[in-house]
Amino acid sequence: MQLIMESSKPHVAIISSPGMGHVIPCLELAKCLVSYHDVEVSFFVPSTEASVQQTQLLESLVVPEDLHIIKLPPVDISNIVPINNEIVARLTLIVQESLPDVRSEILKSPRPPTVLISDMFSTHAFEIADDFKMAKYLFCTFSATVLAYMMYTPKLAQETNIDSQEIPESLNVPGCKPVLVQDLGGRDRLFHLNGGKVQSVFGHIYNYAKASAILVNTFEDLEPQTLQGLSDDNVRWTIPMPPLYPVGPIIKSAESPSIGKSDYYLAWLDNQPSGSVLFISFGSGGTLSADQTNELALGLELSKQRFLWVVRPPQDFTPAAYISAVGGVNDPSEYLPDGFLTRTSGIGLVIPNWVSQIDVLNHGSIGAFLSHCGWNSILESLVNGVPLLTWPLYAEQHWNAMMLTQDFGVAVQLAKASEEGVVGRERIERAVRLVMEEEEGKVLRNRAKELKSSAIKTMGKDGSSYGSLSKLVKKWNEIS
Ligand code: UDP
Ligand code: UDP
């Protein structure tokens, strides 16, 4: 305690919203600041509706001295929001209801934090920053491109009537290539512009504009034009655009203690030839319909490629399923095609619910990744030089999938944003073979390797992302 009192290093509070896609990058940012930038961090995370994985992640953590993990006590939101309400509204409410606990923790602190970093959906914590005169920052756990789009939506809302069908056919977001709304899956799939969703996301977008700066989990070589466009003083945004600091890729490292590290699937991978296995995963909460799960299984079988598939029981998404993810019994033989597990035994491995994805992607026998295109998954794939097959499901994943194929050149499009219905087994077979066996796969792999080396360089001491974080820490030193 004495040491903390005397310390002059900046003390930063990071507030994460629930869900592994948020907690993982926020926690990694915290670790990065503590380990490489001599910062003290208090990391606040709601325990409301925490998934099994989230709880295990926090429990298995080896915490460095200057990182304080504060699990906020559970809050009851059942009277405020119906159980099946949409995800962003729900995350927002959980964070909002947890704010009194954040406040009392800060009041108790012998050396209160002077900087507050919120993630994309915990920006209501900015009111605490104002009360305690802390500097406000945003950690964008999405790409710069999606951030650009989000900052553009107030203008879009001004120019069009979101509740009617008057969304333009193409979007011209500063810094981004013009994009056809149809390529993003049409009006209804356009990022959260449906139902009541736009309202809950808008509250956050207006808060983004109040941040002193935005830390973005990307790097200059990955999104050069967008980063430039977003920082261009001549571009007029409807709401103020804070300065941007590309600080990524901030991802889990394969060496860190992780869930299921000693698991049998890593031993299975050890026995497969280099670059021979397709990894299939739909993030922390993605599921497919029963028909689609069936076609995917049969497509994989037809392709005759080795695979490691993380499976969940087919079901419609529900926010509760997303957050509490995958409790309960999951027996893949109950929903995979008859005989599939026996016929593919030795070639494929089916893992229920969860693997330590970073350890899998880091394994030399992985040749490609069929992904739902969550931003964390994409960064993890790129850092390991693994090309992708895109299968976006919801939220901003359609945009990410498009970037992977059109801008980064590291992926083959498998499922399209604009189509309805089931993706057939033949198309799955062709796409899998293309990446695993053919010349095009080699081209994608080489491009992925290029991005891998720039990702590693940018996080090194002379790299631009490392430099961005150093600049921020210098500012924080001045105010601490
Ligand atoms: N993840 C994992 N094992 C799994 C599924 C997901 O370790 O079986 C991790 C993955 O490595 C990533 C995060 O959970 O860090 C998912 O984040 P992403 O942004 O890719 O997708 P989301 O789950 O938010 O849709
Ligand atoms: N969903 C989810 N996790 C998220 C966002 C959405 O599980 O991070 C679920 C959500 O509850 C909804 C389903 O995905 O039932 C389909 O979302 P939709 O395509 O309507 O969302 P959008 O793409 O417009 O965000």
UniProtKB/TrEMBL annotation:
<keyword id="KW-0328">Glycosyltransferase</keyword>
<comment type="similarity">
    <text>Belongs to the UDP-glycosyltransferase family.</text>
</comment>
<protein>
    <recommendedName>
        <fullName>Glycosyltransferase</fullName>
        <ecNumber>2.4.1.-</ecNumber>
    </recommendedName>
</protein>
<keyword id="KW-0808">Transferase</keyword>
<dbReference type="InterPro" id="IPR002213">
    <property type="entry name" value="UDP_glucos_trans"/>
</dbReference>
<dbReference type="InterPro" id="IPR035595">
    <property type="entry name" value="UDP_glycos_trans_CS"/>
</dbReference>
<dbReference type="Pfam" id="PF00201">
    <property type="entry name" value="UDPGT"/>
</dbReference>
<dbReference type="GO" id="GO:0008194">
    <property type="term" value="F:UDP-glycosyltransferase activity"/>
</dbReference>
